Amino acid sequence: MANDQWTPDLASHVYVYLQVVHHIAEQIRTGRLPAGARLPAERDLAEQYGVAVNTVRRATRELRDQGLVITVPIKGTFVRPEQPSGDGPQE
Predict the structure, then answer these.
(1) CA distance 18 to 49
(2) pLDDT by residue (tens digit) across 28-54?
(3) What is the pLDDT of residue 87?
(4) Which residues of the chain have pLDDT under 50?
(5) For 36, left (φ over 0), alpha (ψ -120 to 50), or beta?
(6) Burial of 72: CB neighbours in 10 Å, binned 0-12, 13-18, 19+
(7) Helices (H), the chain
């Protein structure tokens, strides 16, 4: 997963883990990370983003809570397929 040399804004009032969440969520929304794509391992993400592993863990947990990714033990964390919104035509 290329992060285009993204680095956290340490002067920002937004927590670093939320900055990581926003960056990954934007990549999911724009299709750079398509449904089913596997995210890199936590250590690899931490190295790519220049943050601590615990920061990545917290970001991953937030992405799961938002329904953007799922984590399968031993397998990894994957972008979740889009869920039907339920706003379709009703019969």
Answers:
(1) 12
(2) 999 999 999 999 999 999 999 999 999
(3) 53
(4) 91
(5) left
(6) exposed
(7) 16-29, 42-49, 53-65
